[in-house]
Amino acid sequence: MRKTLIATGIVLATMTAAHAETPATNTMSNFSYDYAEARIGIDPLTYGGGFSMSIHPNAHITGSVDTRFKGDWDANVGVGFHAPVNNWADITGEIKALNVKNDRYNSSGGKMGVEVNLGVRQWLGPQFEVGGKIGHTTISDDDKVIGSITGRFHATELFSIGAEGKFNGLYGDQIILTTRFKL
Fold first, then answer.
1. Cα atoms found within 13 Å of the Cα of residue 12, Cβ hemisphere only
2. Which terminus has fewer CB within 10 Å in the chain: N or C?
Protein backbone atom coordinates (compact mmCIF):
# COMPACT_ATOMS: atom_id res chain seq x y z
CA MET A 1 0.00 0.00 0.00
CA ARG A 2 2.79 2.39 0.93
CA LYS A 3 4.58 1.74 -2.38
CA THR A 4 1.37 2.46 -4.29
CA LEU A 5 0.91 5.78 -2.49
CA ILE A 6 4.53 6.78 -3.12
CA ALA A 7 4.28 5.84 -6.81
CA THR A 8 1.04 7.81 -7.14
CA GLY A 9 2.66 10.83 -5.51
CA ILE A 10 5.64 10.68 -7.86
CA VAL A 11 3.37 10.42 -10.92
CA LEU A 12 1.26 13.38 -9.75
CA ALA A 13 4.36 15.47 -9.00
CA THR A 14 5.80 14.64 -12.43
CA MET A 15 2.57 15.63 -14.17
CA THR A 16 2.49 18.89 -12.19
CA ALA A 17 6.09 19.71 -13.13
CA ALA A 18 5.48 18.86 -16.78
CA HIS A 19 2.33 20.97 -16.81
CA ALA A 20 4.20 23.94 -15.30
CA GLU A 21 6.81 23.81 -18.08
CA THR A 22 4.30 23.87 -20.94
CA PRO A 23 2.80 27.11 -22.20
CA ALA A 24 -0.85 27.81 -21.46
CA THR A 25 -3.18 26.01 -23.82
CA ASN A 26 -6.64 27.02 -24.83
CA THR A 27 -9.29 25.19 -22.91
CA MET A 28 -12.31 23.79 -24.68
CA SER A 29 -14.67 24.43 -21.75
CA ASN A 30 -16.62 27.31 -20.24
CA PHE A 31 -15.12 27.06 -16.73
CA SER A 32 -11.68 26.96 -15.17
CA TYR A 33 -10.67 23.58 -13.76
CA ASP A 34 -7.46 24.94 -12.17
CA TYR A 35 -8.19 25.84 -8.56
CA ALA A 36 -7.45 25.26 -4.88
CA GLU A 37 -10.42 25.16 -2.54
CA ALA A 38 -11.04 25.58 1.19
CA ARG A 39 -14.37 24.54 2.66
CA ILE A 40 -16.40 24.19 5.84
CA GLY A 41 -19.26 21.71 6.15
CA ILE A 42 -22.32 22.38 8.29
CA ASP A 43 -24.16 19.65 10.27
CA PRO A 44 -21.85 17.91 11.00
CA LEU A 45 -19.12 20.53 11.21
CA THR A 46 -16.27 19.48 8.90
CA TYR A 47 -13.19 21.19 7.54
CA GLY A 48 -11.59 20.40 4.24
CA GLY A 49 -9.73 21.38 1.15
CA GLY A 50 -9.39 20.32 -2.43
CA PHE A 51 -7.79 21.03 -5.77
CA SER A 52 -8.29 20.55 -9.47
CA MET A 53 -5.67 20.91 -12.19
CA SER A 54 -6.04 20.65 -15.96
CA ILE A 55 -3.84 18.03 -17.59
CA HIS A 56 -5.40 18.32 -21.05
CA PRO A 57 -7.83 20.83 -22.65
CA ASN A 58 -10.67 18.49 -21.66
CA ALA A 59 -9.28 16.57 -18.66
CA HIS A 60 -8.25 17.34 -15.09
CA ILE A 61 -6.98 15.68 -11.94
CA THR A 62 -8.81 16.34 -8.71
CA GLY A 63 -8.53 15.56 -5.03
CA SER A 64 -9.98 16.55 -1.69
CA VAL A 65 -10.05 15.69 1.99
CA ASP A 66 -12.63 16.51 4.68
CA THR A 67 -12.55 15.77 8.40
CA ARG A 68 -14.22 16.52 11.74
CA PHE A 69 -10.83 16.12 13.50
CA LYS A 70 -12.20 13.17 15.48
CA GLY A 71 -10.02 10.46 13.93
CA ASP A 72 -12.12 10.49 10.75
CA TRP A 73 -11.59 11.52 7.13
CA ASP A 74 -13.09 11.43 3.66
CA ALA A 75 -10.25 11.64 1.12
CA ASN A 76 -10.28 11.14 -2.64
CA VAL A 77 -8.10 11.59 -5.70
CA GLY A 78 -8.97 10.98 -9.32
CA VAL A 79 -9.19 12.07 -12.91
CA GLY A 80 -12.06 13.77 -14.70
CA PHE A 81 -13.22 15.14 -18.02
CA HIS A 82 -15.04 18.33 -18.96
CA ALA A 83 -16.59 19.36 -22.26
CA PRO A 84 -18.87 22.17 -23.39
CA VAL A 85 -22.54 21.45 -24.00
CA ASN A 86 -23.15 24.95 -25.38
CA ASN A 87 -21.65 28.43 -24.83
CA TRP A 88 -22.76 28.51 -21.16
CA ALA A 89 -22.63 24.94 -19.85
CA ASP A 90 -20.12 22.12 -19.38
CA ILE A 91 -20.71 18.45 -18.77
CA THR A 92 -18.27 16.83 -16.35
CA GLY A 93 -17.39 13.38 -15.10
CA GLU A 94 -14.89 11.92 -12.68
CA ILE A 95 -13.57 8.61 -11.43
CA LYS A 96 -11.91 8.75 -8.01
CA ALA A 97 -10.18 6.47 -5.55
CA LEU A 98 -11.60 6.97 -2.04
CA ASN A 99 -10.14 6.43 1.40
CA VAL A 100 -12.64 6.93 4.23
CA LYS A 101 -12.64 6.45 7.97
CA ASN A 102 -15.52 6.99 10.39
CA ASP A 103 -17.51 4.99 12.95
CA ARG A 104 -18.67 2.53 10.26
CA TYR A 105 -15.31 2.14 8.45
CA ASN A 106 -13.07 2.04 11.50
CA SER A 107 -9.90 0.24 10.43
CA SER A 108 -6.65 2.04 11.26
CA GLY A 109 -5.94 3.05 7.65
CA GLY A 110 -9.54 3.62 6.63
CA LYS A 111 -11.34 1.75 3.88
CA MET A 112 -10.68 2.09 0.15
CA GLY A 113 -13.41 2.61 -2.39
CA VAL A 114 -14.30 4.04 -5.79
CA GLU A 115 -16.53 6.92 -6.90
CA VAL A 116 -17.85 7.61 -10.40
CA ASN A 117 -19.93 10.71 -11.12
CA LEU A 118 -21.44 12.83 -13.91
CA GLY A 119 -22.38 16.47 -13.60
CA VAL A 120 -23.17 19.74 -15.29
CA ARG A 121 -22.03 23.34 -14.66
CA GLN A 122 -24.10 26.24 -16.04
CA TRP A 123 -23.60 30.02 -16.10
CA LEU A 124 -26.72 31.93 -15.00
CA GLY A 125 -25.07 35.30 -15.53
CA PRO A 126 -21.61 36.77 -15.96
CA GLN A 127 -20.61 35.93 -12.36
CA PHE A 128 -23.06 33.28 -11.09
CA GLU A 129 -22.74 29.55 -11.73
CA VAL A 130 -24.98 26.62 -10.77
CA GLY A 131 -24.27 22.94 -11.08
CA GLY A 132 -25.13 19.45 -10.03
CA LYS A 133 -23.64 15.97 -9.86
CA ILE A 134 -24.95 12.47 -9.48
CA GLY A 135 -22.68 9.55 -8.77
CA HIS A 136 -22.11 6.12 -7.32
CA THR A 137 -19.70 5.05 -4.58
CA THR A 138 -18.55 1.58 -3.61
CA ILE A 139 -16.75 1.15 -0.28
CA SER A 140 -16.24 -2.44 0.92
CA ASP A 141 -19.61 -4.00 0.06
CA ASP A 142 -21.60 -0.77 0.44
CA ASP A 143 -22.95 0.84 -2.73
CA LYS A 144 -24.49 4.32 -2.55
CA VAL A 145 -25.99 6.80 -4.96
CA ILE A 146 -24.67 10.27 -4.10
CA GLY A 147 -25.47 13.73 -5.41
CA SER A 148 -24.86 17.43 -4.98
CA ILE A 149 -26.12 20.81 -6.12
CA THR A 150 -23.90 23.88 -6.20
CA GLY A 151 -24.21 27.65 -6.49
CA ARG A 152 -21.08 29.77 -6.92
CA PHE A 153 -20.48 33.53 -7.12
CA HIS A 154 -17.31 34.51 -9.02
CA ALA A 155 -16.25 37.78 -7.37
CA THR A 156 -13.22 38.05 -9.69
CA GLU A 157 -11.54 35.78 -12.23
CA LEU A 158 -9.24 34.54 -9.46
CA PHE A 159 -11.64 34.13 -6.51
CA SER A 160 -15.11 32.68 -5.96
CA ILE A 161 -17.38 31.67 -3.07
CA GLY A 162 -20.05 29.01 -3.14
CA ALA A 163 -22.48 26.76 -1.34
CA GLU A 164 -22.97 23.08 -2.04
CA GLY A 165 -25.66 20.71 -0.85
CA LYS A 166 -24.32 17.15 -0.65
CA PHE A 167 -26.72 14.23 -0.43
CA ASN A 168 -26.01 10.74 0.93
CA GLY A 169 -22.27 11.34 1.38
CA LEU A 170 -20.00 9.94 4.10
CA TYR A 171 -21.28 12.59 6.53
CA GLY A 172 -24.90 12.27 5.37
CA ASP A 173 -26.77 15.23 3.90
CA GLN A 174 -24.65 18.33 4.41
CA ILE A 175 -24.29 21.97 3.34
CA ILE A 176 -20.74 23.02 2.50
CA LEU A 177 -19.48 26.61 2.16
CA THR A 178 -16.53 26.90 -0.21
CA THR A 179 -13.91 29.40 -1.32
CA ARG A 180 -11.93 28.79 -4.50
CA PHE A 181 -8.71 30.37 -5.65
CA LYS A 182 -7.66 30.00 -9.27
CA LEU A 183 -4.23 28.44 -9.75
1. 16
2. N
For residue range 76-113, what is the model confidence (pLDDT) as tens digits?
999 999 999 999 999 999 999 999 998 888 888 899 99
Cis previous bond, 23, omega within 30: no
Could you give the C-alpha distances from 135 to 7, 37, 53, 85, 130, in angstroms and in order?
27, 21, 21, 19, 17
For residue 168, with 0-12 CB atoms within 10 Å meaning exposed, 13-18 middle and 19 or more buried, which class applies? middle
**DSSP H or E run through 14:** helix 2-21
Q: For position 28, what pLDDT does the model report?
A: 64
Task: Round to whole Å and give the CA distance between 172 and 146.
Answer: 10
Please give the CATH topology (third level) of the domain spanning 2-182: Porin (2.40.160)
- Bridge partners for 136 per DSSP: 116, 145
Cα 155 to Cα 160: distance, rounded to the nearest angstrom: 5
pTM score, whole prediction: 0.80
> What number is the average pLDDT over the span 150-164?
97
